[in-house]
Amino acid sequence: MTDLEAVPNPVVHSCQILDPGRDVKRIEVLNSETLHRGRQMGYSRSLIVDADEPRRILALTEGQGISIGVPAQGLTKMDTESIAVVDSPDLPPLWQVFGARQRTNGQWVLPELAVELASPDAALHIGPQFVVLETAALDLAAKVTGTQDLEGVSSHTMFLARGKSGPFRAEGQCLNGVGGTVAVRVRLFDEGAADRPITTASFAFRAA
Question: b vs e for 122-140, b when ≥16 Cβ sit within 10 Å of the residue's Cβ?
Fold first, then answer.
């Protein structure tokens, strides 16, 4: 669903990584397709490829979303200018961009909800959620494996409720696999809403 069709809210997002693409400079999302569209629920999938070599498939994604409303009358697509971002060691990590920090007890947390981190329905946007969940998962996996040189294998995220207050705390559990694989389960809690769990995710990593 697009913002012109409905007021979409994500329910499930999954990603299976086939190629870590360490030498890839640009990615492109191809073959985005709606698998099923009901009265409120929608299901979709896509491919993530190397933009300079589209036959090189990097990952598969699937998603499920729900419409929580009808867009305003006369809503049109915004005219936006392309923003060129060149990766460099001088750029801050994404968790820092979204205002996340690590507490002295090791827990990762996003600040109280602000306009900069909110979606149009005045709830915590999925972008900061993806970033802090993965950051917390990588941190836990690095502590268990003894190395930060890890690459993602898969991720699965379920959005349970809208984050309306904050701060938002991530808590996780690490599980050892075989062949250098480790899994992490993480939940995000809204501390300003009686510690309500709002998102849960699982990640699989392996030594690079």
Answer: ebbbbebbbbbbbbbbbbb
Q: Output the pLDDT for position 9.
A: 82
Beta bridge partners of 156: 14, 202
* Cα–Cα distance for residue pair 30/43, rounded to 1 Å: 16
For 130-142, the pLDDT digits (tens) are: 999 999 999 999 9
Q: Are 198 and 160 in contact (CB under 8 A)?
A: yes
CA–CA separation, 188 and 202 (whole Å):
12
- In the chain the domains, ranked by start, together with CATH numbers, are 1-71 (3.10.129.10), 92-208 (3.10.129.10)
For the entire predicted model, the pTM comes to 0.89
Question: Can you tell me the distance from the alpha carbon of 36 to that of 64, in angstroms, rounded to the nearest whole number?
Answer: 10
Query: Residues 200, 187: contact at Cβ < 8 Å?
Result: yes
